[in-house]
């Protein structure tokens, strides 16, 4: 199961193809890799399909609109091939079509990878693993963890603020100025409270004997095993195999250069 | 570098990173909205560019408040990680994007050896972040596939946005916060206190 | 009280501290010792620097806040500055006031492990130690729970467990019960008593409401407004000898030591209600969040000028009921009628003029940059002229003693000032009804008193007041108490007859007010009602 893979290794396994995908501009490579990530998601993790779909579907829309924009505004490097059709006086070529669809598929790959990581990783363990495997200083590790604890609190606080402002007769104002004021009225109290709490937490941590010393014991010993490297090899390896495959079929396109 | 950071400064950076990570995500929707408005005029690509500066703001706020090396970079990075953990269309690459923007923002402060935090430097920081992020987006979002004239126009808009929404707005927000008195224990709050004492004397 | 030989554990020698400069320091030339195995309680009004003192004792201040200090503190005869970083923090454990901001991890077990990791305890020993510490505070089995989902009382017990894992010699409790409901408060105090008896720790308690601590405490210190220790001695000697001095300092006097005129009931005298004058009528109301029922079958009437307290344990739906009556929430079932008109037919602007609501945290209500703007905000919204709103705002500033702070930022005010401002902002037009969500939480005696006098003045003008509160001494003074229990109104009537229903009080986890407790058992202040 992916949830038991060492978080740091997992992060790198997902990060590397995530970055390298940014360089491909053909349809084949991201499509194949997208299908691969889907298979990994539904065979190697216990993410429920419906939950996954709920998170994934809004991004589908974003990806489509992104593709649409690229199709309309492709530059010469990418607008190769014959004109397929004309829209608002803009000629849509085969090349721009392919580039657009490629970008959409690519962003879907990103989303899939992100979801895979986020839903199978415990954020505390991720930070602890970064500290133990990547030698991130404890001060930073625990400082960040303390900050993350406030996530649920902010949501509650926002709700109370909304009510309190209503009581003051301050209804949702329309227009840019109203929006601006609203942003200001929410952000200042929210941040002010956050900062005060940051200070208190830091003091509380130090008063429990925390000094930031790297010499400390670990309740959760995060180790890296063969299984973790196998996972890494699978995710990164398949990416390179996909690229090689795409190359041999003549699909591969990096920055408009066909190989 | 990190040895000079106090724990409370790190927790503050983290809280700022988390809050702005959420705000950053919300602004993807805002950008999409502006795009939809601009689309009929053929200006859709500028939808995100106009507000792009907002995505650098935490660098400027954190650096302006704490005033230590590495703060601008780290705060932005934390915000990026928050975005990815909460889920974003941009994917894990966003962490890299955040790091690069953060480096841009940090560069302005590095040039003054982390001593000057006047408005002009904050604006410069926003501009550098804009240039760095623009360069990165050429590759990461495949912007390089867009027409050159469009690209130049986009760059100009993004730089202006970085200067205003990150530099000017970032300073203004931090100053407002300082007035509430909660920054008493940080560099910005202390500066304010000194000014007050001078004013009183 | 133990009279065996006590050794000084910690000694303060002409110690002063301030956040900015030593001209008028917050803590001024303190000289006192804390003894081994002794329980000492420090009282003082809010803003007197009590909390800063606790952090000076374990050496985190002044460095952590870049404050300034002079004089010395010795721990076991050694200057605290000569201790290694973190060393002293492990000898002196502190439990802080705010349950929300003293943890850095998400789960209980990780938080407790954090302490052990700081002490470099071997991981193999940790599960057992964690489980032991949790059973001391009565929370074994909570290891995997998320801290933010626990109640305030449970959070404080976890905080205590984390500190006990340090195996400290001195335990400092910095108003640990200020944000807890009365029953959780008593439980926490009992727990401390139990631990002290068993582990023989030195305990230093900082409090402003000390009544329930009295039988735990060996010695009392009083910190005055000038930052000096103004009294030091046994409980009885201090309260009998320094009575007027303490009152002047705004310290909550334990009731057995206070004169009759000091206690709450003076607010109570009010004209008899005219029952026909109904303000709000609630019929068969029900409310749920997702699948979770919060309130059902609620029937209630509120009359003009009435003073009502809503009580019940945490999670009973008290705040929800308040929010429903103020139309901050809409019920899914039943109706609410306000002034012969259905609640949801009121125009928002008109309704807000007639209904005021004071939130638990006053900061949530502030929306402008100065006290003055805060006061005139509502007036401007209602279309008053500048001259009109200026006159009204000036009057309010005077009435609420905020003249000096006219141009201050609301966030920079002290706790009591913030509370006053949050009430003042509701009074631009005299509201028909004013709701308060736990207005006396974490406030000192003086602020509470001020608030109660303000409320009395409002009621004379016919404003109905509805409190959600845990303070049973306030409940003792109201016209009507409403007890919520398991989504229903369990009691609705005069407080006097509520106090007679022992079964009901026990079931709903309510405590008797002090007045009745004294009647029941002379001199015993810890009659926990279970």
Describe the structure.
The complex is a heterotrimer of chains A (259), B (201) and C (530). Chain A has helices at residues 7-20, 28-44, 49-72, 94-120, 123-134, 138-148, 151-167, 175-207, 226-248; strands at 83-87, 90-93, 253-254, 257-258. Chain A has 259 residues and is mainly α. In chain A, the strands form 2 sheets. Chain A has a two-stranded antiparallel sheet with strand order 1-2. The two termini of chain A are 37 Å apart. The mean pLDDT of chain A is 85. Chain B has helices at 7-38, 46-50, 57-66, 71-86, 93-111, 119-140, 148-179, 187-200. Helix content of chain C is 31%, strand content 23%. Chain C has 18 helices and 20 strands. In chain C, helix 3 runs parallel beside helix 5, helix 4 (126-136) crosses helix 5 (152-164) and helix 5 runs parallel beside helix 6 (182-199). Chains in contact: A-B, A-C, B-C. At the A-B interface, helix 1, helix 3, helix 4, helix 6 and helix 8 of A face helix 1, helix 4, helix 5 and helix 7 of B.
Architecture blueprint of SSEs:
The complex is a heterotrimer of chains A (259), B (201) and C (530).
Chain A: H1 7-20, H2 28-44, H3 49-72, E1 83-87, E2 90-93, H4 94-120, H5 123-134, H6 138-148, H7 151-167, H8 175-207, H9 226-248, E3 253-254, E4 257-258
Helix pairs in contact in A: 1-4, 1-9, 2-4, 2-9, 3-4, 5-6
Chain B: H1 7-38, H2 46-50, H3 57-66, H4 71-86, H5 93-111, H6 119-140, H7 148-179, H8 187-200
Helix pairs in contact in B: 1-3, 1-4, 3-4, 3-7, 4-5, 5-6, 6-7
Chain C: E1 8-18, E2 27-35, E3 39-43, H1 50-57, E4 68-75, E5 78-79, H2 87-91, E6 92-95, H3 108-118, H4 126-136, H5 152-164, E7 170-174, H6 182-199, E8 202-207, E9 219-223, E10 229-233, H7 235-241, H8 243-248, E11 278-289, E12 292-303, E13 307-311, H9 318-325, E14 333-338, E15 341-342, H10 348-354, E16 355-358, H11 371-381, H12 386-399, H13 415-424, E17 433-437, H14 445-460, E18 464-468, H15 472-475, E19 480-485, E20 488-493, H16 495-498, H17 502-507, H18 514-520
Helix pairs in contact in C: 3-5, 4-5, 5-6, 11-12
